[in-house]
Amino acid sequence: MTTSANVDPQELAKFSELAHRWWDPESEFRPLHQINPLRLDWIASLMPLAGKRVVDVGCGGGILADAMARRGADVLGIDLATKPLRVAQLHALEAGTTSVAYREIAAEALAAEQPGSFDAVTCMEMLEHVPDPASTVQACAALAKPGGWVFFSTLNRNPKSFLFAIVGAEYVLRLLPRGTHEYARFIRPSELARWCRDAGLDAAATRGLGYNPLTRRYALNADTSVNYLVACRKSA
Ligand code: SAH
Questions:
Q1: Is the CB of 62 under 6 A from ligand 1?
Q2: Is the CB–ligand 1 distance for residue 80 below 6 Å?
Q3: CB 207 within 8 Å of CB 228
Q4: What are the distances in angstroms from CA 141 to CA 62, 156, 159, 167?
Q5: Residue 120 burial (CB count, 10 A)
């Protein structure tokens, strides 16, 4: 597979179709709005954002990209879905977020154009939507400066994650539209760890993300069995 083909048009279409509701905190994107402060604080606790050059890969409507810019980072959000990017741009204008920019470009292509240019790379809830996630991990590593940070989040693959992330989230609690996630594309932490090592990234920290359906709240914890985040550093 060539790097430029590392995209599934059906996946992009799903996100484009819903794009106009991206910034509605009660929409299909409620989970992203709810987890955003948690992941933002976690990122900032490892790497203070002020003055940092950050690229957010698979930024969608810009929920994380915008928040990192508001914490003082100079952020470039990239995605291959046109509508979410337009929504992200419009939101930045409306919210007056000046240190964020958006571009429709693949991670692999940006890595070829601007290798080793970013203090940090974030790639959240995106790897489970691409055909060749190892290629995306390679590109994220290539985008980071030596010693830079690379953050990923995705869904684990095991019977519990099938039950919670698909049956629970899409069918029972209806947190996400049906068909949002495909079980076969979920990624075990060991698989992500191998792709990171192969790309010259050293794992620095891992967190689980749990959801309590009674309180309807998310929290970071040590349980990586469903949703999890990994922070890596590129070898200096
Ligand atoms: N990272 C954002 C959005 C997650 S939704 C957040 O966590 O808030 C997943 C995003 O991945 C969508 O915006 C979708 O368009 C994007 N995406 C899917 N395949 C992609 C690809 N091959 N290249 C870039 N972005 C992709």
A1: no
A2: yes
A3: yes
A4: 21, 21, 30, 33
A5: 26
Q: Is the CB of 126 under 6 A from ligand 1?
A: yes
- How many Cβ atoms from other residues are within 10 Å of residue 113's Cβ? 10
The pTM (predicted TM-score) of the whole model is: 0.97
Q: What are the chain's domains? A: 9-154+185-207+227-234 (3.40.50.150)
Instruction: Print the SS3 string covering 30-92.
Output: HHHHHHHHHHHHHHHHHCCCCCCEEEEECCCCCHHHHHHHHCCCEEEEEECCHHHHHHHHHHH
pLDDT per residue as tens, the chain (236 positions): 444 589 999 999 999 999 999 999 999 999 999 999 999 999 999 999 999 999 999 999 999 999 999 999 999 999 999 999 999 999 999 999 999 999 999 999 999 999 999 999 999 999 999 999 999 999 999 999 999 999 999 999 999 999 999 999 999 999 999 999 999 999 999 999 999 999 999 999 999 999 999 999 999 999 999 999 999 999 98
